[in-house]
Description:
The protein has 9 helices and 15 strands. Strand 1 and strand 2 form a beta hairpin.
Amino acid sequence: xxxxxxxxxxxxxxxxxxxxxxxxxxxxxxxxxxxxxxxxxxxxxxxxxxxxxxxxxxxxxxxxxxxxxxxxxxxxxxxxxxxxxxxxxxxxxxxxxxxxxxxxxxxxxxxxxxxxxxxxxxxxxxxxxxxxxxxxxxxxxxxxxxxxxxxxxxxxxxxxxxxxxxxxxxxxxxxxxxxxxxxxxxxxxxxxxxxxxxxxxxxxxxxxxxxxxxxxxxxxxxxxxxxxxxxxxxxxxxxxxxxxxxxxxxxxxxxxxxxxxxxxxxxxxxxxxxxxxxxxxxxxxxxxxxxxxxxxxxxx
Length: 300
Ligand SMILES: [Fe+2]
């Protein structure tokens, strides 16, 4: 039976110990669903699970994203509904420092929300640690609901109703300067996601900021002004009192709600130490995508 959680940060982070998710009952599932509304980050320690166990667990809470058609730089191997979050290739060799996948993965060190570049973004990410580095490599989470609550009223009024464009290549091309893309890759990953900067969550009724390193501009606003606003909001959100730092242990499963928390990876010795995790990600089925803004076609 699912035990009561250990509260790490009230209404933000909870931790479960002494529970095996493979034995989850219908009652456990109901309780876990409630916890997932209340807490943005849930740590389930010491899980001995296979890829199939991880996918089956994710499916209890929503349809998992598929990576079957993802560009090759996203995946080194594994089943199509798990994303490989690692610095190794399919043979478990550490990637060369100049390997494109390693360079792209540096984007994980920026505050972001997973898959925010999709028209229907991610709901929960469920990341399982198979092998971790001896130092560094923590994942940090930033409470976006608390950040919205703490915003001054004039700032809340300023951003109310604004819509941001999220683009899969923004962090990679604009922020990090990775430029060698084929026309097919650029075509596959062109912008097609526009999300409100402020969302009211249907399950908790709380408001949250929709921020991510993938947010490239704001509709109807000059690009420099938009990027500074996004930078300032991210800076405001990611204040120490709103951050949880997860120090990984092997066999941790960490679940976070991408609607309520941004996250980022902290540095580790990526050229010498292996770090291997697998992520299942559920789709936010309750999300209603916005129409493509008229301005996009007018500017084309
Ligand atoms: Fe991520």
